[in-house]
UniProtKB/TrEMBL annotation:
GO terms for biological process: ergosterol biosynthetic process; methylation. Pathway: Steroid metabolism. CDD domains: AdoMet_MTases (cd02440). SUPFAM superfamilies: S-adenosyl-L-methionine-dependent methyltransferases (SSF53335). Residues 36-323 form the SAM-dependent methyltransferase Erg6/SMT-type domain. Its EC number is 2.1.1.-. It comes from the Eukaryota. GO terms for molecular function: sterol 24-C-methyltransferase activity. InterPro entries: Erg6_SMT_methyltransf, Methyltransf_11, MeTrfase_SMT, SAM-dependent_MTases_sf, Sterol_MeTrfase_C. It comes from Massariosphaeria phaeospora. It is an enzyme of class 2 (transferase). This is Sterol 24-C-methyltransferase.
Length: 329
């Protein structure tokens, strides 16, 4: 059994504006796609596990869960997490990365999310594993030793504002790591194929606006002294990070991998649509699930194409130190 080191923080509404959050001295991540994620969560838990993010496959063909855990360990390592630290996970999903990092490092992770439906699932899963307790907001200034966000702040209406709030609750000299969804330097807004990829990713994933890497970096540098900036998608791995969106069965190893890849094939899409329609008709799945899944599949196509063309990355890693602290390697 894992040590009881994961705490869940939540706020009952996801409609607070950034300015109001700042006024209340509350760390705010406004999920513009909150209702979208209510439906998405059920399907993600079945097909993706408890960690809703992409990862590298540096060892090639292996179970997805292994690669995802290694990705989370890498972020914890580069962030410099140590045993006994109090760490904040911004946009925690159902708490998969928080539990993995807490167990890996031996630190206490406070997992923050503004989506009540995901937190409900997170609480149930944490209770089954003997971890988890609720905490109250707001967080005072200089609360956390370190903070990370894995593919979550893309939903914030302003990266500058959310990064500034993160810096506020980070202790002086503390580090923040973010794995950001961005359009890369290869992206050219004048190329219709590139803008179609961006629009498809936004629509299929409930995102208001995907920023470029340059915009995200500029926002990050306003609140943090940069320690590391790297697009992990550029690593020459034997298996591409976007393989789950490809529909190419050559990448599958385990039965779970086959399921994830097959559903993106032509036959898999038809079967998935029929199954979800049936679940929706019998009220097992919530109304609108079939339409949501179709949008996810289209968004997955655009993610895969964006990965192939190198115009999109979900793992633009930025690590920095609170600007009023001294940067140390």
């Amino acid at each position: 059994m894992l040590p009881a080191v994961v705490k869940l923080a939540w706020r009952a509404t996801s409609s607070l504006s950034t300015s109001k959050c700042t006024h209340e001295a509350t760390l705010c991540l406004r999920l513009t796609g909150s209702s979208f994620y209510d439906s998405y969560t059920d399907f993600a838990l079945e097909g993706w596990g408890q960690s809703f993010h992409f990862c590298r496959y540096s060892r090639g063909r292996e179970p997805m869960s292994y690669a995802i855990a290694r990705h989370e360990h890498y972020i914890a390592y580069k962030l410099g997490l140590e045993e006994g630290m109090t760490v904040l996970d911004v946009g925690c999903g159902v708490g998969g990365p928080a539990k993995e990092i807490a167990a890996f490092v031996g630190c206490k992770v406070v997992a923050l999310n503004l989506n009540e439906y995901q937190l409900m699932h997170g609480r149930k899963l944490a209770q089954k594993e003997g971890v988890g307790e609720d905490v109250n907001l707001p967080f005072p200034d200089n609360t956390f030793d370190a903070i990370y966000a894995i593919e979550a702040t893309v939903h914030a209406p302003s990266l500058e504002a959310v990064y500034a709030e993160i810096a506020r609750v980070l202790k002086p000299g503390g580090r923040f790591a973010v794995s950001e969804w961005v359009m890369t330097d290869v992206f050219d807004e004048s190329v219709p194929a590139h803008t179609a990829i961006r629009n498809g990713i936004e629509r299929g994933n409930g995102i208001a606006s995907l920023r470029t890497a340059a915009v995200a970096q500029a926002a990050f540098e306003k609140s943090f002294n940069v320690h590391l900036i790297e697009d992990l998608a550029l690593r020459k791995d034997p298996l591409p990070w976007w393989y789950v969106c490809s529909g190419d069965t050559q990448f599958a190893k385990t039965w779970g991998d086959w399921g994830r890849v097959f559903r993106m094939t032509a036959a898999g899409r038809v079967m998935l649509d029929v199954v979800v329609r049936g679940l929706e008709f019998t009220t097992v799945a919530r109304k609108g699930s079939a339409r949501m899944v179709r949008e996810l599949v289209k968004g997955g196509d655009c993610i895969g194409e964006g990965g192939r063309k190198g115009v999109f990355t979900p793992m633009f890693l930025m690590i920095g130190e609170k600007a009023d602290g001294k940067l140390h390697a």
